Amino acid sequence: MGQAVPALAGCIAPSAPPPYSCLLPSQQRMVVAELFFGRNIRGRGALSGAEWAEFAARIVTANFPEGFTVSDGNGQWQDPATREITRQPTKIVLVAAPPTPDLSVRLSRVVDAYKTRFHQQSVGLITRDSCAVF
């Protein structure tokens, strides 16, 4: 029995990690969302620059009036049903927003509007916790 005490000492659960804090005092907690919008529209060709600008002005700005950044990319996506790989020009939208209760609703509105309006099967969305200051 004298041997059991030293053996149990190694089984102490590690303490919880310290609470997450931002590096700079001026930063605040944010959720960073990256959205990936494929521009090839089945049956009609690529989404035009004017169509994208109108969508961004009406839908993205309405949901994220505080700001966002748009860049161009070249995406690749595999259809889960057919396993077909599609490569296409892509608009990438980067949003940093406070983690408010309505954030998921606003992101969903943007995704759903694009899918419906441009007959897209998917819009990519990546989210992560971060810190930011603007």
Describe this structure as you would to a colleague:
This protein has helices at 4-9, 49-63, 103-117; strands spanning 28-38, 40-41, 45-46, 69-78, 85-97, 124-132. It has 134 residues and is α+β, with helices and mostly antiparallel strands. The strands form 2 sheets. It has a 4-stranded antiparallel β-sheet, with helices on one face. The radius of gyration is 22 Å and the shape is globular. The termini are far apart. 11% of the residues are buried.
How are the secondary structure elements laid out?
Blueprint: H1 4-9, E1 28-38, E2 40-41, E3 45-46, H2 49-63, E4 69-78, E5 85-97, H3 103-117, E6 124-132
Antiparallel strand pairs: 1-5, 1-6, 2-3, 4-5
Helix pairs in contact: 2-3
Strand fraction equals 35-45%
What structural class results from the helix and strand content?
alpha+beta
Strand tally is 6
Shape: globular
Number of helices: 3
Unreliable residue stretches: 4-9
Please give the alpha-carbon distance between the first and last residues.
61 Å
Quote the average pLDDT: 88
Run of helices and strands:
HEEEHEEHE
Helix proportion of residues, in percent? 25-40%
Tell me about the largest β-sheet.
Answer: 4 strands, antiparallel
Gyration radius, rounded: 22 Å
Spatial sequence of strands, sheet with the most strands = 4-5-1-6
